[in-house]
Amino acid sequence: MTYHPEILTLSSDLSPAECIRQLRAQTQSDNTGLTIMLPGAETFFAGKRPLFCGEVGQSGFRITKNSVRFGIPYAFEGQIQQSTSGGSDITLTIRPMYIRLLWVTIMPVVMATLINTPCLIPGEDYDPSSKVIRGIFSVLLLFLPYYNLRRMRRKFIRSLYKVLKVRDFF
Hints:
Blueprint: E1 6-12, H1 16-26, E2 27-29, E3 52-56, E4 60-65, E5 74-82, E6 88-96, H2 98-120, H3 128-164
Helix pairs in contact: 2-3
């Protein structure tokens, strides 16, 4: 999990115009500017949604995952240029959305503290098995959100690679 912008250089088999067309087909436009903060808010009751939410211009884009419940705390910005080999070169910048990233970072600590607070009250007798179970649950609560965030980020990048038909697919 990174708190600083990350820059990737990608090569695609598609021409720049085709890349933009593919992105526009898979992106819900952001007319209000709010959906980059709350992706998918206006399509909550819709059935099938586009993969991405944001803005796609003539040679660049700014998108994030189109989701109401399980969004990722990153915005993806890219510039598309013609490549010398006939395809296109894409400069992708992954920018963290700090409010969402802080939420994912701080909320598990708060929840683990709330779960373990009854064990810290003097005068209360808790059996050791209860403390062990609470401890295991707290550790899982602290580390699973980080793992899930990394998994969702990787999955989102993979779907972006598929749409843009990137050569160096991982």
